[in-house]
Input
Amino acid sequence: MVVISIVAILAAILVPGMGGISARSSLASAQQDLMQAIRKAKSVARNQNTAVTITLVANNSRISLASADGRFTQNIDLPGSIAPDTSAAYRFNPMGLLDQTGTITLISSRDATQTRAVTIQTLFGQLEAG
Output
């Protein structure tokens, strides 16, 4: 009985902390997926000489990439319950330059205090993870 009580107490202490670890791991993976999607959009725009748009929808874990000429589309699902906190669209022109810069914040629905950001710093698509 004593051993079972000790195990139950330890489980009650450790289990809530495990949720934070899981959320952080999912956020890190989602951040890398988002950065890879941005790089992919730039590459396709330059290589196929067409505009490519990255579309993010708030509270939706799917990132959509689509070329203006319709030859390229791709959907990327972020892991776990991770999604951007706001809707946004970023467009690479056929030369691989962005129309705008900005910061995309990813948030975990499991733990809203856990966030990760990707900042697109220049029109060339230089990325910074935060």
Remarks:
- Residues 19 and 110 are 8 Å apart (CA to CA).
- The radius of gyration is 19 Å.
- The helical segments are 2-48.
- The chain has one domain: 2-129.
